[in-house]
């Protein structure tokens, strides 16, 4: 009986205005006692408690959805995830669904919205103009909601997931990590090795260390460490460059890339003033450490930086040109979702300090 009294005392007076999820403006003058029976069972939550707030927000959300003519909010959330891929097959693999299930749900969503979201072609799918506009709005909204839920659950200062390549982690970060752990024992740090540093939200990454020239618009970017990249090969390729010249040797060598749409080699050929034609003999090796070993084994040439200093000193790798990509280096990337958590700020500040010590 005492619990029932507490719940009745906790009933709020809430007013919600019309939004995209509700067809009409509505008012909650008082919620029925049965509406909060579950709240009573959750430990007699009171106004101001996080769980009480989340429960109340959920009830309002359900009311909006039930009142709305749009019934497929779950499919809309799925659309945001699928839109990150250029084919339903890739999306199905990443989301652990079947291609048929994804195609079916997108067709239902398109029918409900009355617009086509994906253009189908022989190579996969691409977003329509309407889909790009929808993705901008929904993606930002979902990220904000998820960031706020994380904050309300009070977990923003206890855990931190940092994404990066195993190359950077093993060659620069690992020897320094213990100082961060000693300075911030309250933070549970997780280093997430990644070869594709995209779609950080979906992968649960709070901040990533990303190599390139910083020209990305899918994340919030902050310069971290300038480190120009230049071509390297093994001794055999180095001798070939000396014998027949750089241009000819490079035209005959296999170019090792990190991913299909990388512009790094094109940028380097432009910087070196050498002709660059479309190549069919490129080899895609996403893992940078594996790419280094492939160069040592004579599988081709790659763009690397000062982090291969050990291999250069040992003679396993040889720098093939003095021309480097001056704008390339490492950048800090984080999802575009409100202000960073305290744990992210602490890690970024520590990284910047470590960089200044090494400079």
Describe the structure in your own words:
The protein has 359 residues and is α/β, with parallel strands linked by helices. It folds into 4 domains: 2-67, no CATH class; 73-152, Winged helix-like DNA-binding domain superfamily/Winged helix DNA-binding domain (Arc Repressor Mutant, subunit A); 159-227 and 329-358, 3-Layer(aba) Sandwich (D-Maltodextrin-Binding Protein, domain 2), CATH 3.40.190; 230-319, D-Maltodextrin-Binding Protein, domain 2. Helix content is 45%, strand content 16%. The protein has helices at 2-9, 37-41, 50-67, 73-82, 88-95, 99-113, 129-152, 166-173, 177-183, 235-244, 246-252, 264-272, 288-296, 309-314, 342-358; strands at residues 14-16, 26-28, 118-121, 124-127, 159-164, 188-193, 207-212, 220-226, 230-233, 256-257, 283-284, 302-304, 318-319, 329-334. The strands form 5 sheets. A 5-stranded mixed beta sheet has the order 6-5-7-14-8. Strands 12-9-13 form a 3-stranded antiparallel beta sheet, sandwiched between helices. The longest helix has 24 residues, at 129-152. It is flat, with a radius of gyration of 26 Å.
